[in-house]
Amino acid sequence: MVSVDVCLLFFFMVFLDGHSKVSCNCNSSSSQDQSGKIYHLVNDTKNWTDAKSYCMNNYKDLAIIYDQRDWGEALAAVRSSANEVWIGLHNETQWMWSNGENATFFHWEPSYENKSGYDCVSSFSGKWRSDNCLLKQSYMCQIVTNTSGIMKKTFVYKNMSTMWDGAYNACTNISGDLAVITTMDEQNMFINTAPNNTSVWIGLRRNIWRWSSGKLPKCIPGDDPNNRKSCIKIKDKIYLTPDNCSTSSMFLCYSVTTNGTAQFTNSNVNATVPPPTSSTFKGTHSYNLTFINQTKNWTEALQYCWKNHKTLVHIVNDTVQDYVVQMLQNEVYPNGVWIGLERNMMFMCAPWLWTGGPYVHFSNWSSTFPVDPISQFCGKIIGNKTNWLDAYCGEELPFICQSKKIKQLLISIATTY
Asked: Are residues 297 and 364 both part of a single domain?
């Protein structure tokens, strides 16, 4: 399994009922989302840099994917291909500002520029230090205003301790950014705002995942410890995987239109699978729950439920929880049973979700939860009371499918096991 520091798990909402196909022309297949992006699968192979140049010359750029709708449309565009496909997420190894600007001005404290493994920057008494991104320190935001065409930058000190990515998110949440210092005048303004003898995060970082547009993901993913696989592909139509940027692959571009109407051609695909050993519990007109007494990893279980039912079970309230307890009372499952709980592997700040995107409001977590928040991103139920627990997604367990009709299906992007 690829290290979880570089494994990427996103939750992609696809507005489908069944399986979707997209129309194709001779060179590419396209999918358009309702916010105006159109994704184009280019049936040619290039390295990541050349693919980006091709997209910029012929479309807008390599695919940038900011939200669940984007993910659904991007995946619809690549569904017709069995090949690996570049997208616009890559790792920047050089010092860059969090707003996407290249760093040309520096104010390092001597010997603090290139400390190995220290990829974020703080300022201490006006001098910059490369620091461990996981340290909790205060931070400096910047707010940029435009008054009658005159741009004004204001630094705002925040006396709250957080890691670098927490500081970045806090500043962007107030429509700002972490402090970007590009001239000596700005450095002096920063010094006049920051307290003395205090470490303060600024917006400079290296070895960071970034979209080809320069924008950072909302949460900051981990870095490739070998610093070799620095560009991201869609693999097997649903997986995201890092690879060497010099590898030649097909790629996904995007363009922008002001007329954002999504168009799909739907077709139903009937999967042929051996009949499982299962028990079905029909306790309500809304849910048709089926216990599948076959052992699969979480991703395989989800794919099985897609093909034969609708999805892994969502336990959204006490009623469904009670149904699950009754269903399993005569079953033997010593290591647990998969349910439709998952968490974003790429981002440590990601919440638990049900497949399809709903947040977890009702919960029945075990007293031992979480077992391993660093490397366990899928949910199972255990014990006679069917408490919930986080689990390693590659574990092989029986599972429960539900056959409720849902138009919002999750496509889960996971690493290979």
From this structure: yes
Q: Compute CA distances 8 → 70, 137, 333, whole Å.
A: 16, 27, 29
Burial class (CB in 10 A: 0-12, 13-18, 19+), 169: middle
Please give the mean pLDDT across all residues of the chain.
77
pLDDT digits (tens, 9 = 90+) for 121-176: 999 999 999 999 989 999 999 999 988 889 999 999 999 999 998 899 899 888 89
Continuous segment of H or E residues that includes residue 44: strand 37-46
Please state whether beta strands 137-147 and 378-382 pair in parallel, antiparallel, or not at all (unpaired).
Answer: unpaired
**Cα separation, 191 vs 194, whole angstroms:** 5
pTM for the whole structure: 0.53
Other beta carbons within 10 Å of 144: 13
CA angle centred on 127, ends 122 and 130, rounded to 5°: 40
Q: Is residue 195 part of a domain?
A: yes
Which two three-digit tokens encode residue 302? 């989800």
Query: Total domain count for the chain?
Result: 3
